[in-house]
């Protein structure tokens, strides 16, 4: 489970921003999880709301970038920067004169296999400046390793496994955790696994990867896995009774070419994934049952809402069935409000969410802030992002920073400007646009 994420100097998140999954108090009827050495439970759901360009997506992008740094910095980042290209492909806050001079920091506190960890690092364009891993074996954390600069390593008494081999392999611009996992380090491979298998990100960029996950679950030989996907596929009222992959003689060659392209892009791109709709969609079909029989449509012939729901099912089922964290960028994009609420309800319901699954999402969907929504979001699960238009920097803050009761209509107060996070519309723009249009119709106006 994810307990806290902090980031500084990533995209519009100039100053340190923090998002936590700690509940303010226990509430009956919603999914909550015990945290070692902590009285407050962990939440299953947290949502970030705000205007366009307020920085909502940058929170999930930053977490995805941190994940990619752990997974790929050793294997994909270039060993020696060349042609002015940064050794660390980061995305710092650019709206200032010294944009490239300031470092980027990010850290996570999480639970994996019953153990509570803190891991974080700091970097600039060329190298890793600091990296550390701690474990909460008691109320006070004890350090497992700490790295200061390129090759100054310190190891705690709880560090288990080889040291010399991994430290010799690590480059100035790769994380020690990434390098040690590549060497199959017995202790650090476990921590690496949290990023690799437990933390999932759903954005428009990794559509193909998500779609492939759905197919793996649906076509798995385990009948139980297929039923999971089938239940949610039919719940959406899309008139789709099943999905399948159509293969021909060229599919294997084409799939291999797509994978090579993916790896090539991963080595030069810091984003979470890449769009390969054209490569995969034609080989996938959905079955529809009508009064005249069963008919098959290629995925490209389906509505964007149907395709979005199908591609979400894999990560959704995987997270709920196995536990973990699903980070969904713009959860409400191309999905009906009832379907968005269904996703949140699945994580909120203790009967469904018995494996410690969590959902972090951002959204423009103000209806999720209503007084009596089906999903049952509480005040400690609602966050806002707001951008200072003078500096371009985003701020992230929770609804619990404001006084109020849980039964109040948050949606109404939000639109009243009580919590910020609203777009500012220049009403004079309508009048100015009207004058410009009239000039085009009637010729230049005379003063």
TrEMBL record:
<dbReference type="InterPro" id="IPR027417">
    <property type="entry name" value="P-loop_NTPase"/>
</dbReference>
<protein>
    <submittedName>
        <fullName>ATP/GTP-binding protein</fullName>
    </submittedName>
</protein>
<dbReference type="InterPro" id="IPR003959">
    <property type="entry name" value="ATPase_AAA_core"/>
</dbReference>
<feature type="domain" description="ATPase AAA-type core">
    <location>
        <begin position="46"/>
        <end position="368"/>
    </location>
</feature>
<dbReference type="Pfam" id="PF13304">
    <property type="entry name" value="AAA_21"/>
</dbReference>
């Amino acid at each position: 489970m994810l307990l806290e994420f902090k980031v500084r100097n990533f995209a519009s998140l100039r100053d340190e921003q923090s998002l936590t999954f700690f509940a303010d108090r226990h509430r009956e009827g919603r999914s909550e999880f015990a945290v070692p050495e902590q009285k407050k439970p962990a939440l299953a759901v947290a949502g970030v709301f705000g205007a366009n360009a307020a920085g909502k997506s940058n929170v999930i992008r930053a977490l995805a970038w941190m994940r990619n740094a752990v997974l790929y910095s050793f294997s994909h980042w270039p060993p020696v920067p060349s042609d002015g290209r940064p050794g660390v492909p980061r995305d710092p806050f650019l709206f200032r004169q010294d944009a490239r001079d300031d470092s980027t920091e990010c850290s996570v506190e999480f639970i994996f296999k019953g153990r509570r960890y803190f891991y974080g690092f700091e970097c600039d364009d060329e190298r890793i400046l600091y990296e550390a891993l701690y474990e909460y074996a008691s109320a006070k954390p004890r350090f497992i390793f700490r790295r200061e600069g390129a090759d100054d390593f310190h190891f705690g008494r709880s560090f288990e496994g080889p040291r010399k081999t991994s430290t010799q392999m690590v480059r100035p611009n790769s994380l020690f955790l990434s390098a040690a996992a590549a060497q199959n380090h017995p202790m650090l491979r476990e921590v690496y696994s949290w990023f690799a298998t437990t933390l999932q990100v759903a954005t428009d960029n990794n559509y193909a990867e998500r779609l492939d996950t759905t197919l793996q679950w649906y076509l798995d030989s385990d009948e139980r896995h297929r039923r999971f996907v089938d239940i949610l596929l039919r719940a959406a009222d899309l008139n789709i009774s099943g999905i399948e992959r159509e293969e021909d003689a060229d599919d294997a060659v084409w799939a291999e070419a797509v994978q090579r392209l993916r790896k090539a892009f991963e080595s030069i791109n810091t984003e979470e994934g890449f769009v390969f709709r054209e490569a995969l969609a034609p080989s996938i079909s959905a079955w529809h049952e009508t009064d005249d029989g069963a008919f098959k449509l290629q995925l490209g012939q389906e509505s964007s809402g149907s395709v979005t729901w199908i591609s979400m099912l894999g990560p959704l089922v995987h997270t709920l069935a196995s536990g973990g964290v699903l980070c969904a960028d713009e959860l409400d994009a191309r999905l009906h409000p009832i379907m968005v609420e269904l996703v949140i309800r699945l994580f909120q319901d203790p009967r469904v969410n018995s494996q410690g699954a969590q959902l972090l999402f951002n959204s423009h969907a103000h209806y999720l802030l209503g007084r009596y929504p089906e999903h049952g979001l509480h005040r400690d699960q609602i966050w806002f992002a707001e951008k200072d238009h003078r500096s371009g920097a985003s701020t992230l803050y929770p609804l619990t920073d404001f006084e109020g009761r849980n039964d109040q209509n948050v949606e109404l107060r939000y639109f009243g400007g009580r919590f910020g996070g609203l777009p500012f519309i220049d009403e004079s723009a309508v009048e100015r646009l009207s004058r410009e249009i009239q000039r085009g119709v009637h010729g230049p106006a005379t003063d």
